[in-house]
Every structure is written in C-alpha cells, then in structure tokens.
C-alpha cells in the first residue's frame, strides 16, 4: 500500500508532506449505465475519487455481451472499467449479473492485474463476495458498503411465497460472511446501519451518506402555474407507485393535479392500466428513462415529489429533489424520515395509505405562497448536510485505514409550539449519531 510504514511520502514545493494517491478497486453488482441508487452512488464516488487524483478501477457486470477491460468516462472523469461477462436476469427488466461460479477466478485476475491499495465493494451478492475473498487472501484492505435489502429482490426471484422467508434468511447469512471480511462496513444512514447490524450480527457499521452534487441541481423559485406531482425511480412493485395513483384519485378535482412518473421498469404497463381504471389516465404521464438534463427540467416543472417506497436505505432521488428546492411527501419508513421533516420541507404519510398520502399532498398543493416557499427553503437547508465531497473525504480516510467519525447528516427539527400556524418552520437541531 502507498501509505505503509517506511514509505517516503512526496512533498509539496514548500517542503510539507502530501499524501500519495491511492489505487482503488471498486466492485459493484450494478453500475452505470444501470439506473438505480447503488449504481449512481458508485459512479459518483468513482468519479469524485478520480477528480482528486486517485487511480480508480471499477469491476462490474458488462452492460451487454461485450466484456473486457477498457477506459470509460463517468461524470466527466476517466476510469478503468473491468466489465465481466454477464447474463441477463429476465424476471427483471434490466438486471445483468456476473456468473457466480466464475467470480473468484475473475476477482483474482483483476486484483492481480490492478494490485490495488484498497478494495471497496458495493454489495455482497456476487462481485463483492468474490473480491472480498481474494482481497483477504492477499492482505489487501477491504471496505464494504451495503445498499441492498433482500426483500427488494423477492418479486424477481420467482420463488414460491413459502420459500421466500427462507431465502431472505440465506441472503442475510451470506451478507454476514462477506461483510465480515471487511475492515470497515458502511451504509447510507444510521437507520440503515442499525438494520444491517440487526440482520447480520455485525457491529460498528458506519452511517455515511451517499452524498449528492447539490451544485448540479439549481432551485427554481418561479411561482407555480400548475399542480404537478412527480415520482422518480424504478417503476417496480417495491416502489408502491400504485399507492400514489390511488391517492391522486382522492384529490379534489379543482386541484387539477397532474402526475409525472419518471423512470422505467416492469410495472409500467400495469400502472398504465390502473390509471385507466381509476379514471386519471389523462393526468398521468410515464416518461420512461430520461437524461440528467431532462431530469433537472422535470424537477423544475414539479410542485412536489412523492416517494411512496417503504424500502429506501437513503433515496438519492429525494436528495436530488430537495437540492432542486422541491417539497417532498414520503412514506414514514426506513431512511426517508431522516430526509423529510413534517412542516419543514414536506410531510410524511402512513406507508401504504392512499388516504394519508392524498391528505399530505393537499397540504403542499393547497399551501399559501409563503407556506410553500418555506417548504422549498426547508429542502435546501436540510440537503446541505449531504455534500458528496464530505462523503468522499470520509471514504478516503477509511481507505487509508484511519478511524473516522460518521458525518452528521441527520438533522432533527425542534418542536413547534402548539399554537404555531400551519407552515411555520422550526430551527433545526443537529442530531449526532450515537
């Protein structure tokens, strides 16, 4: 490793020591061009590390039949990609996976070619398992990050319902073995860290935000000209988009609320049929996948982001919307309450309840201009703690084997007086992770 005892560090022109750049191998079961939170985080992390002068290699399944090693440009930065021969998992609408029975061989080959200082895997399923086994044999530092909940994949396994609980148990045992090889384990939020510890028996899991390049999302302060609700993400069953459509049906007709579903997935046709059944098809638009520029425009068109998913370990989409100064109405589940604070930047609703979601959407859509602006300002204030540069700095410390203090990203709102007017915003209190 570059920072092993006895290595002579380089110096700046003024004679002070600087740290040598690292050679980092990131392993991922899903990576760009895949569109999901884990893939986006790995891409942003890799690009940010390259921008800081590190040599970054990414090992991930090939996005098509072409496999091998080549240079790729992500977020404007060039890195080396080791794309593994992959098969398409057809129950899923886009997922490709590296062959499990070849993963140790491939991991050994890539590690021996790259000779990394550190291996950072993004899930335990296939690539992370192979890399952790082979890196451990060679005495290479291992960092593991979890973005995965086994329950999210159940609908794509084709397993009978009676076997699903057994399969989830096996998945968590596999996670325990793989993450157990890592020197440090991270996940995006304190709630997610506690969840991982509870299901694997691990301890000391770090809560490190995926982070966001907030400067890439510009707030729009233009007055609203329509009531437009936006959802961004995979159009799959785990996102509970049907709850959103049923909630829109319950909104007063005079609001003339429109819905924009941004993203693709296997449930698109079923949801289109549901919109027809509910009589709201003329107010629902399915855009499919969009470019980054188109996504930023979609956030600007919207009045509010709706996030009905109940299995978000952080939700990069919610952070993007907040950086765009959008109020958010989200399910009161998993990590979403860490981002959405009632009355500050939006509202939480009872998971799975179209009635409660409709009620909370009305609170945003019927808010006065001053109340609405306060919600928008709340999103901007709360997202400031999730600067990706802090995330990258924390991982750099882990890569060098240094102890870290989890960045403070969870801000607890102060209680409002009982007679406070609707829309009043309390000054937030920083909540330090225990």
From TrEMBL:
One of its GO terms (biological process) is carbohydrate derivative biosynthetic process. Residues 223-376 form the Glycosyl transferase family domain. The lineage of its organism: Bacteria, Bacillati, Actinomycetota, Actinomycetes, Micrococcales. This is D-inositol 3-phosphate glycosyltransferase. It comes from Agromyces bauzanensis. Pfam families: Glyco_transf_4 (PF13439), Glycos_transf_1 (PF00534). Gene3D superfamilies: Glycogen Phosphorylase B. Keywords: Glycosyltransferase, Transferase. Residues 35-214 form the Glycosyltransferase subfamily 4-like N-terminal domain. GO terms for molecular function: glycosyltransferase activity. PANTHER family: SULFOQUINOVOSYL TRANSFERASE SQD2.
